């Protein structure tokens, strides 16, 4: 099977767009050249379109097994492909949790049989994510666990985190942390700030996140473990990570598109599509996150795609589950609001979605190079459309961005040399 992508615009090493053809053969990039004359099984005319490495999202909730009403591996990975993502890492807050050899083996089989993009499975840090007993890291690594995380809950005890980091470091594996101190949650459903006060709601204070990150960077220093901070959301957290990096501690961090785009003051009403964990913080926090991303304190962008059913989200702000979907809207939102407005270049945005996550986790992905796996996205930067949750391939419709007009949408996504998703009209 071969695919020839003709006349696409590729970013060169100096960050400029240059027209090139790409030939894909046997799942890999075979040739990149100004003009390739060959008979391929499939020809895609990409004139006027940008060709980029397939995006990587290291924070996705596919929900299967156990949460199939919210999402499945099949639907979540179709949503990923539509969003231009070719590799995603799947969070372990499922039922059962991937915490034993048997459970991760079962998960691997499901991925093998139904995933439409590359899926890297996280395994849990603690059995059933209950914070009592550590999982068998070595056995889980042998079955392909990508890293260890209890995302959805924080690791409450320093002693347990220390032990987890020691064991992960010995296996050269990362600890990926949802940072939330349970004693500081305050039964909050939104950020403790302007919105919580105006609406008489309990707020989750910023320290609920930042104290745990401060503890953990010191534990990472003590153990030499690669420590990764999930969905960083506060200005104090950014400062702690910045200082830790300066001190030479092996820490990386991700930020979600929604924390870059919105603050609690942007929440228009008691709409649960604005409820996620960590919550939308203050405007100062939002600014600090962008500064942290641009100065390298924050390594990359990850969506924290967290689908829930309409029924679940129809509950009150206090009762509805935390989380919003993100895979199908990330690139158009970021391109429109940050590249078109000059906050960052197209090259930078693509790096935050490709080479940066790949580098942070030593993944052999995220570049367009000869011999590499052909994981590619074709983008139409002129295409302008309103975000319409009814068109989502995800089962989740829970987004605060419905109706936002965005420019720059994927038109085709290729995974290991096969077309995983394509918009009808790009056929040559
Ligand atoms: N982010 C969220 O608001 N929710 C996530 C859990 C998590 O990422 O902590 C979920 O699983 O729904
Ligand atoms: Zn989390
Ligand atoms: Zn998450």
Automatic annotation (TrEMBL):
GO cellular component: cytoplasm
Binding site for Zn(2+) 2: 151, 178, 231
Obligatory cofactor(s): Zn(2+)
Pathway(s) served: Pyrimidine metabolism; UMP biosynthesis via de novo pathway; (S)-dihydroorotate from bicarbonate: step 3/3
Any GO molecular function: allantoinase activity
Cofactor note: Binds 2 Zn(2+) ions per subunit.
Binding site for Zn(2+) 1: 59, 61, 151, 304
Location of the Amidohydrolase domain: 342-419
Residues noted as binding substrate in the record, renumbered to the chain: 61-63, 93, 277, 308, 322-323
Record-annotated Dihydroorotase catalytic domain positions: 48-237
NCBIfam families: PRK09357.1-2, pyrC_multi
Name this protein carries in UniProt: Dihydroorotase
Lineage: Bacteria, Bacillati, Bacillota, Bacilli, Bacillales
């Amino acid at each position: 099977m071969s695919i020839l992508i003709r006349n696409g615009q590729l970013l060169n090493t100096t960050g400029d767009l240059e027209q090139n053809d790409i030939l894909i053969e046997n799942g890999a990039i075979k040739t990149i050249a100004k003009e390739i004359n060959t008979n391929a099984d499939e020809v895609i005319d990409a004139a006027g379109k940008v060709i980029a490495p397939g995006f990587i999202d290291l924070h996705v909730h596919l929900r299967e097994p156990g949460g199939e009403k919210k999402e499945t591996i099949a639907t979540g990975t179709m949503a990923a492909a539509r969003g231009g993502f070719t590799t995603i890492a799947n969070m372990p807050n499922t039922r059962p949790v991937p915490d034993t050899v048997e459970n991760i083996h079962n998960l691997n089989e499901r991925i093998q049989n139904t995933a439409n993009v590359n899926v890297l499975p996280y395994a849990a840090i603690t059995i059933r994510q209950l914070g009592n007993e550590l999982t068998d890291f070595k056995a889980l690594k042998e079955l392909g666990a990508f890293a260890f995380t209890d995302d959805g809950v924080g690791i409450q005890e320093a002693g347990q985190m220390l032990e987890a980091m020691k064991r992960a470091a010995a296996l050269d594996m990362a600890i990926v942390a949802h940072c939330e101190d349970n004693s500081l949650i305050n039964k909050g459903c939104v950020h403790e700030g302007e919105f919580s006060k105006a609406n008489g709601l309990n707020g989750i204070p910023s320290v609920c996140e930042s104290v745990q990150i401060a503890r953990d960077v010191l534990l990472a220093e003590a153990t030499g473990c690669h420590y990764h901070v999930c969905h960083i959301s506060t200005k104090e957290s950014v400062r702690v990570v910045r200082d830790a990096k300066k001190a030479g501690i092996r820490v990386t961090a991700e930020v979600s598109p929604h924390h870059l785009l919105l603050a609690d003051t942007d929440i228009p009403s008691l709409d649960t599509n604005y409820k996620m964990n960590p919550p939308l913080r203050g405007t100062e926090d939002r600014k600090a996150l962008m500064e942290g991303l641009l100065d390298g304190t924050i390594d990359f962008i990850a969506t924290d795609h967290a689908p829930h059913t309409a029924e679940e989200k129809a509950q009150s702000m206090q009762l509805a589950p935390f989380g919003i979907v993100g895979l199908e809207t990330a690139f158009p939102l970021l391109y429109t609001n940050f590249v078109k407005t000059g906050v960052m270049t197209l090259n930078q945005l693509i790096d935050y979605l490709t080479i940066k996550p790949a580098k942070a986790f030593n993944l052999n992905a995220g570049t367009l190079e000869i011999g590499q796996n052909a994981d590619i996205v074709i983008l139409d930067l002129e295409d302008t459309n309103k975000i319409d949750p009814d068109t989502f391939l995800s089962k989740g419709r829970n987004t605060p961005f419905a109706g936002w007009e965005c420019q720059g949408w994927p038109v085709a996504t290729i995974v290991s040399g096969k077309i995983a998703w394509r918009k009808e009209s790009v056929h040559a």
